[in-house]
Structure formats: structure tokens, C-alpha cells
Amino acid sequence: MDYKQFVHGLMKPGENILETLTPEKAEILHMGVGVSGEAGELLDAVKKYTIYNKPLDRINIVEELGDLEFFMEGLRQKLNITREETLESNIEKLSVRYKNKVYTDQEAILRADKMEEKFVNQ
């Protein structure tokens, strides 16, 4: 089997997706796709500054961060997740990863917060 056939066999048909797509799921998809798109636009602005040595376009970066906030808040609302819950969860995760609450390369590589997952998935 060549790769084209392999992918075609594993790709979920659009008709099957549409069978279970509700307006709520469509709104969640819209917000999630929005986050991804805006993250790409933010990354492009950062790339231009860091790689191409262009002047930092702070106005554009603020705009893209605002767009990200918009789509993230929309996604949180659709999924009944508060911003505070998101931040608390992130603090908890990173506190496990970085024992002294200070970045180290070793702890970043080790990812202690993912150790249980690693053992479960082996």
C-alpha cells in the first residue's frame, strides 16, 4: 500500500464528520481554529523580529495577542472553563515540572508533570 492509499484509508470522511457536527461543536471548532490561526500570525511577527532582524512590530503583536485572547475566551465560554481555572491548572502543572519554580533545562527535558503519562503509556 502506498502512502496516498494509507492516508486515504485513515482519513475520516467529511460526511461522517457532518453527521455529528452540531452548531455547538461548530462554534467550538471555530474558536479552536481561530486560536491556531492567530498563534500563527503571532509567530510570524516574532519570526520577522528575531530571524529577519526587522524592527519589533509591537502594535501588531498586541493585536495578535488580543485576537488570541478573543478566541481563547470564546473557547473557554463554549466549554464552561474559566480563565482562572486555566491559569490555576497551568500554575499547578508548571509547579510540578519546576520544583523550585525556576526554569532549568534539565527539568524542561524531564517534564516531571508528564512522568505518570509516560509510565502509563509504556
Task: Describe the model.
The chain has 122 residues and is an all-alpha fold. The chain is 75% helix and 0% strand. The chain has two domains: 68 residues; 41 residues, no CATH class. The radius of gyration is 20 Å and the shape is extended.
How many domain regions? 2
What would the average pLDDT be, to the nearest integer? 95
Rg value: 20 Å
String of helices and strands:
HHHHHHH
Task: Give the low-confidence spans.
Answer: none
Number of E strands: 0
Summarize the topology.
Blueprint: H1 3-10, H2 14-20, H3 23-50, H4 58-78, H5 83-97, H6 105-110, H7 115-120
Helix pairs in contact: 3-4
What descriptors fit this protein?
122 residues, mainly alpha, 2 domains
Give a short synopsis of this structure.
By secondary structure, the chain is an all-alpha fold.
